[in-house]
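Q: What does the predicted 3D structure of Flavin reductase like domain-containing protein look like?
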Amino acid sequence: MPHERVFRVFNSVKTFKRGFFTESYLPPVEEFKNAMSTVGSQAMILTASFSGDLDVTKMHGTTLSSVSSLTVYPEPVLQFNIQVPSATSSSIHQNKYLALHILSPSSDSVKLARNFSLGSRFINMQMNSDNTNAERKHTTPFERIDKQEWELFEDVIQNDRPDSFHLDPKLHLPVLTKNSERILICEKYKVFQIYNHEIWTCKVKDILINVHEDHKTGGLLYFNRNFHFVGNPLVDPNTKKD
């Protein structure tokens, strides 16, 4: 039959005319995961502020694929979500500042992103919550990276403008300076809980630019359970050739 296409509908196979779809009435969890794996998204790392002495066991962070711009006016605001319970979430709730890192598309960034994703994987494994050693192993990513890969925000900032942003004196914010193209310094705004996730909105207070990576690459992308980089632009048939 001409102009027909076969679509898999969960555990059945049906034939439809080209361009037509149907919905399934079966539980959608696995197919929902498969559907969302067809969508590419930006992989970014969030690091949380902490107070007190410099101690890597206090330094938390996580890899996100849900960061998006919410609004520009009257001030820039971002949104993302975090699965809870989360040491990173608790740290931001207590200390209110965070850094979002736009990563360069490299194998080093992939390694870094996987390292910071271990906390979420720990939650999903549903391990015994009494196993504090296992919890610490998965929720302290800075213990697993070299000191040369990060610095404290207060040691990096060089802007002496009267209105330049500074952290509260008792707080510290680790930033990943080695593999980041841009670092967005943010302040907690409003948070909403939906089931086992928190939807965060944050005000962008400052942006650090890597002078050695001051060009647009598209960042590190996550698609179909793997990391990727942006390819060549598609040809727009409506664009006139020079």
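A (community wiki): The structure tokens above were generated from the sequence. Helices lie at 29-36, 87-95, 107-116, 118-124, 132-139, 153-156. Residues 108 and 179 are 7 Å apart (CA to CA).
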